[in-house]
UniProtKB/TrEMBL annotation:
<feature type="transmembrane region" description="Helical">
    <location>
        <begin position="153"/>
        <end position="174"/>
    </location>
</feature>
<feature type="transmembrane region" description="Helical">
    <location>
        <begin position="301"/>
        <end position="324"/>
    </location>
</feature>
<keyword id="KW-1133">Transmembrane helix</keyword>
<feature type="transmembrane region" description="Helical">
    <location>
        <begin position="199"/>
        <end position="223"/>
    </location>
</feature>
<keyword id="KW-0472">Membrane</keyword>
<feature type="transmembrane region" description="Helical">
    <location>
        <begin position="243"/>
        <end position="261"/>
    </location>
</feature>
<feature type="transmembrane region" description="Helical">
    <location>
        <begin position="81"/>
        <end position="99"/>
    </location>
</feature>
<keyword id="KW-0812">Transmembrane</keyword>
<feature type="transmembrane region" description="Helical">
    <location>
        <begin position="21"/>
        <end position="40"/>
    </location>
</feature>
<feature type="transmembrane region" description="Helical">
    <location>
        <begin position="273"/>
        <end position="295"/>
    </location>
</feature>
<protein>
    <submittedName>
        <fullName>Uncharacterized protein</fullName>
    </submittedName>
</protein>
<dbReference type="GO" id="GO:0005794">
    <property type="term" value="C:Golgi apparatus"/>
</dbReference>
<dbReference type="InterPro" id="IPR040410">
    <property type="entry name" value="UPF0658_Golgi"/>
</dbReference>
Amino acid sequence: MPKILSNEWFMDKWAKLNDSIWTKLYIIVSVIQTIIVIALEIRVFNRNDSIRENVEEFGNSSTCNIQYSTNRMLRIEQENVIFIIFQLYQLWFCFDAILSQNTIQLIAVTIMNGICAGYSIVQIEEIRIWYMDLNKSCSNVFEKASNPAGYDIPLVITLIIFATVMGFLAFQLYQQFGWIIYRRIGGSIEIQTIYRRQLILVILLKIDLFFLLLFSIESWMTFTLEDQTERLESLYYIPKTIYYYHRVVTFSIIFLEFVVYRSLRRERRYGMLIFIFLWIAVVVDLILILCFSIKTARDSWYFLICFVIFSIMVSIITWVYSIIVTKDFNRGLKEIWYKKNSEFPMDDRHNVILRQLSLD
């Protein structure tokens, strides 16, 4: 296996990106999608921020309480920022799918694109509900100026188009990578099944790393240790013990990801067992956060709740697959990788292209 950042390593990655017309198109479209979608989402964010500032300038009065509305709009703006960060993550995910030639990851990208398109529609409904709540507090004071046709609809259409195009390209690459995988590990159904399970676990770990760390950072800004009623309109109260437990778990996620990756490549059971045991703490942490998210906030933030529920589901599936993959150790896959890696040594530059058939 080539050393990271060595000339051979770069040549290997570059060869995979330029392997076919479909890999080139997939990367180009991914980059274009990221640029356009982020630009459109920034427009939506600026629109929302402008609306909130306009409402804040009005101020509170005896007949009009805007605090609830401004807090809720701040949450919507945070969702916009998370969506932008997710686009950057998805771009990396697309590159990684090509570099690792992971067929399962191509399917995951297609699903993500569909979810993004769906969320862009939800954003329109969020603003509509926000205006309804605002007008309940301040009847006929604020004129509706969200202009979904100029801000939200272009984003929805763009995401649907890119989701369709990326789905088509993913289908073409699925066929291409399927043949490469067959050449890698042969025609044994058992070995192919073991290999797919490992691919699924790797994808789950990548998703976990993004969602759990992003959620952890978001939760530090959202949760408070102060049990004060007036603050619970915009923040969530959790006990001090749970709060610091959550922080410890957050920092342990990176360590656990490192342990499981190293153990998976080398089929080390003790490393996998450490991950399986400690990952339970991550699931428990998410469940506790979910309980307090629903329980303590006067106005539940449904985006956060859905975010936590999704993280719990993915974490549990990751835990289950880590057990399944551990049971698959020493059943022949490691020996196949070793044999393939030995056939094309990296000290021979003429074999760099052939090394695409070995484990990335």
